[in-house]
Design brief:
Blueprint (H helix, E strand, L loop, with lengths): L19 H22 L3 E9 L2 E9 L2 E10 L13 H16 L11 E10 L2 E5 L4
Parallel strand pairs: 3-4
Antiparallel strand pairs: 1-2, 2-3, 4-5
């Protein structure tokens, strides 16, 4: 290796190169963008992306009419280790529900939060294919 060159990632067991942290971040960002476009193509407005609080993060918050959707996006390059939706376990679901409650509590009363219908979706993107599980939990 020459001076200043970064080391190449080690191959996986099947001979492919591992993504590394930067590659995983880029894969995740691409997946979140694809998910946002999926919602927008169906008439939703993206209200928040990567909404963070101390308790965690919600990938996408979208709205159409009175329905507000809290969406967890999981992106995989292959399904070799399972689909993204399989990775949204009960603990993650509870965290997203708590974050949704927090997001709602930060709305001003004028927004009319009493008339909002909540939904929790999981978007699983595998090898570029988008699958949205509406009302997943």
């Amino acid at each position: 290796m020459t001076a200043g060159a970064s080391p190449r990632p080690h191959p996986d067991a099947d001979g492919r190169r591992a993504l590394g942290a930067d590659g995983r971040r880029a894969l995740g960002a691409d997946g979140e963008e694809r998910a946002a476009r999926w919602y927008e193509d169906r008439g939703y407005e993206v209200v928040e992306r990567n909404w963070r609080r101390r308790e965690g993060e919600v990938d996408l918050i979208v709205r159409r009419g009175a329905t507000v959707v809290f969406s967890e996006v999981k992106t995989r390059s292959t399904d070799r280790f399972g689909t993204g939706s399989e990775a949204v376990l009960p603990a993650k679901q509870r965290r997203i529900r708590r974050l949704a409650s927090r997001w709602l509590s930060e709305l001003t009363p004028a927004v009319g939060r009493a008339r909002i219908e909540l939904r929790f979706d999981v978007v699983s993107i595998t090898a570029g294919t988008v699958e949205v599980i509406e009302d997943a939990f």
